[in-house]
Protein: Lanosterol 14-alpha demethylase
Amino acid sequence: MQFYQMSTKLLRDTVGELNDSLTSVVLAGLFFTLTVGYVSKRLLRESSDKNLKYPPYIPSSIPFLGHAIAFGKSPIEFLENAYEKYGPVFSFTMVGKTFTFLLGSDAAALMFNSKNEDLNAEDVYSKLTTPVFGKGVAYDVPNHVFLEQKKMFKTGLNIARFKQHVKLVEAETVDYFQRWGDSGERNLFEALSELIILTASSCLHGKEIRSMLNERVAQLYADLDGGFSHAAWLLPTWVPLPSFRKRDKAHLEIKKMFFKVIEKRRQSGEKADDILQTLIDATYKEGRPMNDNEVAGMLIGLLLAGQHTSSTTSAWLGFFLARDKALQEHCYAEQKAVCGEDLPPLDYDQLKDLSLLERCLKETLRLRPPIMSMMRMARTPQTAAGYTIPVGHQICVSPTVNHRLRDTWMERMEFNPDRYLNDNPAAGEKFAYIPFGAGRHRCIGENFAYVQIKTIWSTLLRMFEFDLVDGYFPAVNYTTMIHTPYNPIIRYKRRKQ
Ligand code: HEM
Ligand SMILES: *[C@@H]1O[C@H](CO)[C@@H](O)[C@H](O)[C@H]1NC(C)=O
Structure:
C-alpha cells in the first residue's frame, strides 16, 4: 500500500501503454489542463497572505514536472540532501502537485497525531485502492467505518490463529522450495513473491480460496495488482488504458469467486476457525454484519496489503543474511538451541523465542522499510516547525529517512541487529522507527507479518545455506512504488541434515 513515486520513466511507461493516437490526444489535453491549473495555482499562491511563513520551497527550473526526475531516480538521497539544506520541513513540486515532507521524529508527530479530517488519507489513496479493493471498504468509506473494519480483522488475529499460521506457512515454504533442488542461483524476490501469495491466501483467506489458487487466478491477482501503477495515480480513472481494463476485469472475476465461497460458508452452518469466518461473523457497532461485498473487498485488501510489504522485506532479509555468513550461522544455531538439535516442526512458542532472527527482521525493516513514505492531503492549514502548511499540500513522512537520520542513529547505515539490545538515541524518539506507521492509520498486520516472515526464514535456514553471487549485494530498484532489490539473484546450497 504505497502510493507514489515519480520519474521520467513513469511518464514513459504511461505513454508507452497508450496504444492508439486517440488516447494520446486525450492525454495531451489532460496535461494541458493540469498545467494551466498548476500555473494559476502558483500565481494565486504568490499573491496570498504575506504574513504567514510557509515551509522553505525547493525551486525547480522545470515547469510542471518539477523535481519528479531527481526524486524518481533517487528519492532517499533527494530527501536527505533537502534535509541538510532546508531542515526537517520543506516543500517541492512534482507533476503539478506540491509535496511537503516532515522529516525526523518531531516533525512526523504532526501526521501521526492529526485527525483524518485535517490530514486526510482517502484524498490521496482512494483513487488507487478503490478500483482494486472495490467499494465499501478501506479508503472508499468514512475513516470511522474503516477503523471498525480494521478492528474486526484484528480480532481474527489471535494467538490460536497464529499457531495455525505457523504450520500452514512452514508447509507451504517446504513445498514451494522443493523446486529449488540442491544448489543453484535463483531470483529470491520472485520466489518469495510467489510463495507469499500462497501463504497469505492460506492464512488470511482460508482453505477454500487457497485451493482455487492456480495459475489463472494468480494471473488475475497480478492484473489486479497492476492497478497500483503510476498511470493510475497520474491519470483520471476514465482514461481507457489497457491496464485499467485488465484491473477492472480481474476485480470482477475475483469478487465473483469470493462471493461463491462466502455464500457456501454462510449456508453450511458449520463454523470454520479462520479469519474468513471472523469477517463473516463480525458486526459493526450499529449491529449490522458486513455484507458479501465488504467481506470480499477486505479479503482483496488484506492479501495485497500484506503481499508486497512482506515479500520485499523477506527478500532483503535474505540478502542481509547471505552477506553476513556468521550472522546466518548464528540464526541457524539459535534455532537448534531453541527448538532442539533435531529441528522438529516449527511451533509458535518457539518461534517467539528466536530473538536474533527477530532482531534481524527488525533491522531489515529499519534499513529497507517497504513503505518508503506515507501521504496525507492537508484539508486544513497545518503548523509544523513554525511553518504554516497550506491546504492542498500532500504531506509526507518517510520511514526510510527517519530510520537513518544522522542525529538519531549511531552507525546508521550498518546492519546491526544487536543495536536494539543497547541504549540508542532512537529509543527516546517516538517516531524514529516507524516501518508500520503510527496513529489512526497504523498497520494492523505487524504481528502477522512477523509470524509469517520468521516462519519462512526459519524454514529456509533449515533447508539451505545462502551466499551472495560473487559478492553482489543488490542495489535498490526504485522503479516501483515499493523499493525492491535490484537483480535479486541469490546462491544457495542444500544443508546436509
Ligand atoms: C512487513 C510488512 C508490513 C509493513 C512494513 C506494513 C506497513 C504499513 C504502514 C507503514 C502502514 C501505514 C500507512 C499509512 O499510514 O499511510 C500500514 C497500514 C496498514 N497495513 Fe500494513 N504493513 C505490513 C504488512 C501488512 C499486512 C500483512 C497486513 C494485513 C494482513 C497489513 C494491513 C494494513 C492495514 C489494513 C493498514 C491500515 C491502513 C489505514 O488505516 O489507513 N499490513 N502498513
Ligand atoms: C526492477 O523493478 C521492475 C518493476 O518491478 C522490474 O520489472 C525489473 O525487472 C526490476 N529490475 C531488476 C534488474 O531487478
